[in-house]
Recover the amino acids of this structure.
DNA sequence: ACGAAGATCTTCT
DNA sequence: GAAGATCTTCGTT
């Protein structure tokens, strides 16, 4: 079911991500994502077809996992198209489901475990050297049905202040009323914004 | 071989 | 709200 990346980003909200690392299982429901659209998107790693060893995975087929590191943190993307369109969705926030104690142990704290792209990978034990280039549902990381958002909120992407007009694109999608998102301080809605 | 940049996080005021 | 920590990749000498 390959389709356009913005649609895929919206549909990822509420899906359940499960990671099995070193025999320990953690999972969570997706609360926050951002779309990156390759050629025409100045904020994307694959802008204008830029292709390096680092972002090579963006040119893989739908369902691939692209993990990059920056400032000593790991960030996870799901690839949405194919080599002709290097596009993907960055997973920025999760609502913890299983493995809460494992997440706390890995993070060394008891709160704010998965409300940011670098935090959720650390909580789940996801690392570039272990998981970059794997495919969903064929290895340590699986995607399955989860919850449905009541309302999807659009906003500007985070952390790309120097990308000129790309900073204004509304390519960030969050579950309205869910507190497990980065930056925003949200008042929890009924049922954390799920249907 | 070197330097700069980066889709971040934590801690401090 | 601001700044420092931290580290890998890439482009240039």
């Amino acid at each position: 079911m390959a389709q356009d990346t913005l649609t895929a980003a919206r549909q990822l909200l509420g899906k359940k991500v499960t990671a099995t690392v070193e025999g320990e299982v953690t999972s969570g429901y997706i609360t926050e994502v951002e779309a990156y659209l390759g050629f025409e998107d100045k904020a994307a790693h694959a802008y204008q077809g830029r292709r390096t060893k680092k972002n090579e995975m963006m040119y893989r087929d739908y369902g691939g996992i692209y993990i990059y590191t920056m400032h000593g943190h790991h960030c996870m993307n799901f690839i949405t198209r194919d080599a002709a369109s290097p596009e993907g969705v960055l997973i920025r926030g999760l609502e913890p489901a299983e493995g809460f104690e494992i997440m706390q142990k890995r993070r060394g704290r008891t709160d704010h475990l998965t409300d940011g792209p670098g935090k959720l990978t650390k909580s789940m034990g996801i690392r570039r050297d272990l998981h970059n280039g794997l495919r969903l549902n064929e290895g340590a990381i699986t995607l399955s049905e989860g919850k449905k958002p009541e309302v999807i909120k659009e906003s500007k992407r985070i952390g790309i202040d120097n990308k000129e007009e790309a900073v204004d694109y509304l390519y960030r999608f969050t579950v309205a009323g869910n507190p497990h998102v980065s930056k925003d301080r949200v008042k929890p809605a009924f049922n954390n914004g799920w249907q």
Chain A has a mean pLDDT of 95. Chain A has one domain: 5-186.
